[in-house]
Design brief:
Strand content: 25-35%
Order of helices and strands: EEHHEEEEEE
Strand order of the largest sheet: 5-4-3-6-7
Structural class: mainly beta
Distance between the termini: 5 Å
Number of domains: 1
Radius of gyration: 17 Å
Helix content: 10-25%
Bound molecules: zinc ion
Number of strands: 8
Largest sheet: 5 strands, antiparallel
Number of helices: 2
Shape: globular
Length: 161
């Protein structure tokens, strides 16, 4: 069952939302079709605005790489702190025995996006990196430093399949 996030800057109310997790349609079989032949019928639109990454993944999958993990995830721009939702995937490449994950770029400033987790606290929403360390957040629009749950976002409390 998938979920979502909806957050906003407490100072200026700029808001961000997106999907998290995976749903029932994301069977491993369907994922393999989607990743190996992204243009085929029955493949899902997971990388619509990232055709370069879609191509990288397809070429790895065509070399019998194995699929380790995948889900919709939240990302933070290391440069301007814009928040985005992207499709996370990790693949073990057969040849080099390396783990591949897509390197997404911020749609605003083209800096690298890093995968994050958001944690709802009493007063605000904390941003954590993949190791669980807190990342101080700064609003790209007003320099505010407090991120809070956006109660107007339909992505909060959503459960999709
Ligand atoms: Zn702001
Ligand atoms: Zn950015």
């Amino acid at each position: 069952m998938g979920s979502g996030f909806g957050v906003k800057c407490k100072a200026c109310s700029a808001s961000w939302e997106g999907s998290l997790g995976i749903g029932l349609r994301y069977s491993e079989e369907r994922m393999k079709v989607t990743l190996t032949e992204p243009k085929s019928r029955g493949s899902m639109r997971l990388f619509s605005d990232d055709s370069e990454i879609q191509g990288e993944i397809a070429s790895l999958m065509n070399q019998n790489a194995s699929l380790l993990d995948y889900e919709h995830s939240a990302y933070l721009c290391a440069g301007c702190h814009w928040i985005e939702s992207k499709f996370y995937i990790s693949i073990k490449t057969l040849a080099a025995e390396e783990i591949y994950t897509p390197k997404y770029k911020c749609s605003k400033c083209r800096n690298a996006l890093i995968r994050i987790k958001m944690e709802q606290n009493e007063n605000d929403v904390q941003i954590l990196d993949e190791k669980g360390n807190e990342i101080p957040w700064k609003c790209p629009l007003c320099n505010g430093t407090k991120l809070v749950k956006d109660n107007l976002s339909a992505q909060n409390d959503i459960l999709w399949d």
